Amino acid sequence: MVFVKYHCKPGDEQAILSVRITTSHPGLSLSALRDPSPTAVLTLQFHIRCISSDRPAQPLTMCTSGTLFDAIKPEDGPMDNLARGMLGSGLVSTNASDGSRKAISLGNFRVHRVRQDNDDAENLRQRPGTNFITVPAQESGETVKVSHAISSEHLFAYAERTTPSLLRIGERYDIRALEGYVAATWWCWGSLNGDLKNKKLSSFQRPYHPCHDEGAIPEDRERPGWVTGEHIARLKFEMEAGGECCSVEVIE
Questions:
Q1: pLDDT one-digit tens code per residue, 235-247
Q2: Which end of the chain has fewer CB atoms surrounding its CB within 10 Å, N or C?
Q3: Number of domains within the chain
Q4: pLDDT tens figures, 179-205
Q5: CA 37: distance to chain centroid?
Q6: pTM of the predicted model, to two decimals?
Q7: Which residue range(s) make up the domain with 59?
Q8: What are phi and psi of 156, to 5 degrees?
């Protein structure tokens, strides 16, 4: 499902992340599309950079499970994050030679997971399928990149009436991310390979304002070796101007 994103008042953000979508190569090769091997024919890349922060010298770590920042894995098969409609209509033609609005859908499924042991574990590291990435500190000016490598079989798994034989050299296809999936489900200050390396990541989060009682953290949750999440509404995502969409052109 698309996340219900909580928005904070302007100026209440603790950190703002800028996001840009690109492809590893501007061309989509017809000859590669005819190859049934698992080799990637298209790699989508999401570049994340911190552009504003209450702690500009400190990186932050966020939980990416179920978002566009959770890189797809071969073992997931075609029923992965991208198959949940995170890219909307998928690859949409802007200049189809026959004048139609061709599209290569990557799927729009609603997946229901079977409950597993530790689904409710307080330490998020122990929950099945939970993944994290660290975004470099604002002062560093660095980005973190999440890549989705897509094979020909994967690209057309849910494309229905669109097949490689219907594509024409010179056609261009736009790819856009749905804003509802440009998100995180939990975050805190620190780096996975640094100060968080041996810490337990608590599922509890701090209240929107420290003076508010609602959602306050029980005293016994502030324990040595544990890290409590910051309020999710105070981490803001913005699509970079000109970076909210990328294109590929069909080539031989």
A1: 999 999 989 999 9
A2: C
A3: 1
A4: 889 999 999 999 999 999 999 999 888
A5: 26
A6: 0.88
A7: 15-110+123-251
A8: -105, 10
CA 222 to chain centre: 29
Residues 6+ apart with CB under 8 A from 42: 23, 24, 25, 28, 149, 150, 155, 248
Q: Is the pLDDT of residue 217 over 70?
A: no
**Nearest by Cα to 138 from 61, 54, 228:** 54
| Within a domain: 7 | no
Residue 141 in any domain: the answer is yes
- Span 8-40, pLDDT tens digits: 788 899 999 999 999 999 999 999 998 877 889
The answer as to whether 4 is a domain residue is: no
Q: Which residues contact 92 (CB under 8 A, 6 or more apart)?
A: 101, 102, 103, 173, 174, 175, 176
Cα–Cα distance, 162 to 46 (Å, whole number): 26
